[in-house]
């Protein structure tokens, strides 16, 4: 059993990608915020940049620690400030349904000022 409560020094949104209905009743692709302002700890694990088709790509791996939420899956994504992370793997730490480790890659990097 680990006590991570004091390390959750960031606030993230957990987003699910799906379809939403607009004001006319039409379905369209959109994002649904599953959990808002979730306390989290974000730690970079590995960074890698490479050149592919005349474009620099960033393949950084980040570990995000949050309290357990049953509906968080690799189909969701994490948004912190203006940076969006794809969830690659979800680990239930100690199998106790108290803490989740989310191993993520950067989908869209935001600006530093946001």
Q: In terms of topology, how is this protein built?
A:
Layout: E1 10-21, E2 27-46, E3 49-52, E4 55-58, E5 61-67, E6 76-80, E7 83-93, E8 99-108
Antiparallel strand pairs: 1-2, 1-6, 2-5, 3-4, 5-8, 6-7, 7-8
Overview of the structural elements:
The protein has 114 residues and is mainly β. It has one domain (5-108): Bacteriophage SPP1 head-tail adaptor protein (Thrombin, subunit H). The chain has strands spanning 10-21, 27-46, 49-52, 55-58, 61-67, 76-80, 83-93, 99-108. The strands form two sheets. Strands 1-2-5-8-7-6 form a six-stranded antiparallel β-barrel.
Q: Which key features would you list for this structure?
A:
about 110 residues; mainly beta; Thrombin, subunit H; 6-stranded antiparallel barrel; two-stranded antiparallel sheet; globular
Which structural class do the helices and strands define?
mainly beta
**How would you state the average pLDDT, rounded?**
82
Shape: globular
H and E order = EEEEEEEE
End-to-end Cα distance, whole Å, is: 35 Å
**What is the H level of CATH, i.e. the homologous superfamily?**
Bacteriophage SPP1 head-tail adaptor protein
Strand content: over 45%
Cα-atom radius of gyration: 16 Å
Based on the coordinates given, report the CATH architecture.
Beta Barrel
Query: What is the CATH C-level name?
Result: Mainly Beta
Give helix % range: under 10%
Structure summary, number of beta strands: 8
The largest pleated sheet is described as:
6 strands, antiparallel, barrel
Q: Helix tally?
A: 0
Poorly predicted sequence stretches spanning 5 or more consecutive residues: none
How many structural domains can be distinguished in the coordinates? 1
Tell me the CATH topology: Thrombin, subunit H
The assembly state of the depicted protein chains is: single chain
Strand order of the largest sheet: 1-2-5-8-7-6
């Amino acid at each position: 059993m680990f006590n991570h409560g004091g390390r959750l020094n960031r606030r993230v949104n957990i987003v699910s990608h799906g379809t939403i209905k607009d004001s006319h009743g039409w379905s369209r692709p959109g994002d649904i915020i599953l959990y808002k302002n979730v306390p989290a700890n974000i730690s970079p694990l590995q960074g890698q940049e490479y050149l592919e088709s005349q474009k620099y790509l960033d393949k950084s791996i980040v570990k995000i620690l949050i309290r357990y939420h049953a509906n968080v899956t690799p189909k969701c994504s994490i948004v912190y400030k203006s940076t969006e992370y794809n969830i690659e793997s979800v680990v239930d730490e100690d199998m106790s349904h108290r803490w989740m480790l989310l191993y993520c890659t950067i989908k869209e990097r935001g600006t530093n000022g946001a």
